[in-house]
Amino acid sequence: RTEIVTAGRERSHVISSPLVPRRATPSVQMTPVGWITTMGLQRFEQRLERMVEGAFSKALRGGIQPVEIARRLTREMDLLRRVGVRGLIAPNVFVVTLSPSDADRFQSFADVLARELGDAAREHARSEGYVFVGPVEVEIRSDPSTRAGRYRVTAEVREGLDGLAAASLIL
Asked: What gap in Å lies between CA 31 and CA 79, rounded to an integer?
């Protein structure tokens, strides 16, 4: 049986058959050599993504859309998640870096955009079973070294005040 799985712009092919055993996906409990290989592949994938997105942004000239930033934010969560005692720990602090011209376009609704991106991160965490060790924070910055139509999303895990995780309501 051949199964093709498509997620967003990425495509991966999963071939499963009774004759070909499925390989487990890499986990956090790999050897240091495995970490280096995974990190190298992630860096290569990020470079390739920047090249492809740069080519498309030049061709389309539509400017950055909030949904693109939200997709990148959730992708960073997936890439940087770690196994913790209570489950998969996801980054909870995000910095979105835009070019000055793109930051000016978003200036009138930057606070709303930051809240919406935080909501998107929380929703993605719920759907993937991730936990946070602190409140979700999103900051939008302008950087003159960032070219128009490009942006960066950096993510990190930051503990809440007094070592307490963000509160949640379970219904």
From this structure: 18
- Distance of CA 58 to CAs 51, 97, 149, Å? 11, 19, 8
Between CA 101 and CA 103 the distance in angstroms is: 5
Contact (CB, 8 A) for 94 and 73: yes
DSSP β-ladder status, 151-156 and 93-98 = antiparallel
- The position carrying tokens 């993510």 is 155
pTM for the full predicted model: 0.63
- Provide the 8-state DSSP code for 152: E
pLDDT in tens, 54-93: 544 444 456 899 999 999 999 999 999 999 888 999 999 9
Assigned token pair, 137: 């924070």
Classify each residue of 119-144 as buried b or exposed e, where b means 16 or more C-beta atoms within 10 Å of its C-beta. Answer: ebbbebbeeeebbbbbbbebebebee
